[in-house]
Amino acid sequence: MPRSVTTATTLTVAATLAAPAVLAAVAAVAPAGPSERSTQPVAAAGERARPAEATEALVFGHRGASGYRPEHTLEAYRLAVAMGADYIEPDLVPTKDGVLVARHENEISGTTDVADHPEFAERRTTKTVDGVQYTGWFTEDFTLAELRTLRAVERIPATRQENTLYDGRYLVPTFDEVLALAKAESRRTGRTIGVAPETKHPSYFDSIGLSMEEPLVRSLRRAGLDRPGAPVVVQSFETANLRELDERTRVPLVQLVAGSGRPWDVVEAGGTTTYADLLTDEGLTEVATYAEWIGPDKNRLVPRAADGTLGAPTDVVARAHAAGLQVVPYTFRNENQFLPADLRVGTAPDDYGLAFEEYEVFFDLGVDGVFSDNPDTAVAARDEG
């Protein structure tokens, strides 16, 4: 069944790159009078949703407002909404008892205080996930009740030292809680707040008997969100689980496209299709048979030159639109270390650079959305031009 994304109404947030913007966003949680954005219509039967050229680009709060709070916490998602994000983005992994929770990875030593819990010391182990070996603690070895005894911490403390102020304060949220938060924030702000869950490592979890598709769809249905026009988009770097979800749910799907390599389900099946192949005309046409969006590494749209500066844009956005797909690149961040060399300011990797100039390049390309760790910056770049 065709699906389309419901675009949220606008909350104008006075945002700058300075820290006071964060405080202002936290305080300004009730807009004085949101204006209605143009909304992409739901496709008629037998048609697929196509990009609406006049629709304002959407801002996806990447793991919440993860530039300012430990990622994948309800507080990070709330702050993203306060900063004007249209969608909040939880990465999903299952617990031992099959509950979907929001974590960047199933290995949680870098995003929780699990190492400080002696009662779980014996659960530290080594596993191979998508061909890569990891040592630590894994969500699939904990029940939800056990995970609830842990607290979130900043994943990249050397870069975002100020976020460590909030270490140990927040729980690991469930997907159901994220959906409930979006619904509550929609009522409170008068805007429709969308949710963009990403299924992490679905082939791996299938292999250990923790399939993700069924609990994801159940959660959407319980929340009344498995319907055309619902403010939900589901993402994956794999292809097989998106094809399965295409049969199970009526919400839009996003084929994520990494900067290199192949989807892991393709690797496991012995296939040769690369992420680059998905961006050929033939690949985009195929993706459009099961998804409505592509979510490419932003370097797929504007590559870096050999010296690390921004190179010449590719034609991926135009060709994706021609195939009926919308485009939401990842990930935009304010710190120098994540910016092109020609947009850095000073030499400190964790200082802010010329992030607005990077956004301008991508908005000028006609992208339909952006994933950003700093949603206030993304909103200001979009709204202020």
UniProtKB/TrEMBL annotation:
SUPFAM superfamilies for this protein: PLC-like phosphodiesterases
Pfam families tied to this protein: GDPD
Alphabetical list of InterPro entries matching this protein: GP_PDE_dom, PLC-like_Pdiesterase_TIM-brl
Keyword Signal: yes
Protein keywords: Glycerol metabolism, Hydrolase, Signal
CDD domains: GDPD_ScGlpQ1_like
EC number: 3.1.4.46
Protein name stated in the entry: glycerophosphodiester phosphodiesterase
Provenance organism: Aquipuribacter nitratireducens
